[in-house]
Amino acid sequence: MKKMIILSAVLASSPAWAQTPTSGGARAEGAFDPNETVCQAVTRTESRLARARVCMTRAQWAEQRRLTRQNTERVQANRGERQY
User: Fold this and answer.
1) Domain extent at residue 41
2) CB 42 within 8 A of CB 54
3) Is residue 39 situated within a structural domain?
4) In sequence order, what are the beta bridge partners of 40?
5) Using CB atoms within 10 A as the burial measure, which of 10, 57, 81, 82 is most buried?
6) Residue 8 lies in a domain
7) How many Cα atoms sit within 13 Å of 55 on the Cβ side?
8) In the chain, how many domains are there?
């Protein structure tokens, strides 16, 4: 019973640990600079271990995600149609 109480106390307080600390309110939540350069490690298709570092602005990353989503939806919509 004592273990159950301790476990529930730890689990109840875990969302507070998962929150990211704010930096003195310098930036409003959700606000970001679309021209800020962000680098991400991208897995290369020719190897499952090789990774490349790609740097683009936040606006370019958003456009890339939009185009990928658009192409995926187009392929899924045309999945049943045969092209001869």
Assistant:
1) 34-79
2) yes
3) yes
4) 54
5) 57
6) no
7) 3
8) 1
Residue 56 has which token pair?
A: 């683009």
The answer to whether the CB of 55 falls within 8 A of the CB of 38 is yes
Give the pLDDT band of residue 8 (cuts 50, 70, 90).
Answer: low
CA contacts within 13 A on the Cβ side of 39: 4
Largest CA distance in the chain: 69
Q: Taking the model in full, what pTM does it have?
A: 0.53
DSSP category for residue 1: -
Position 46 scores a pLDDT of 83
Tokens of 23: 């930096």
First vs last Cα of the chain: how many Å apart? 68
Q: What are the tens digits of pLDDT across the range 22-79?
A: 444 455 556 789 999 999 999 888 887 889 999 999 999 999 999 999 999 999 998 8
Assigned domain for 10 exists: no
**Which secondary-structure segment (H or E) carries 54?**
strand 51-57
Tell me the three state secondary structure of residue 28. coil
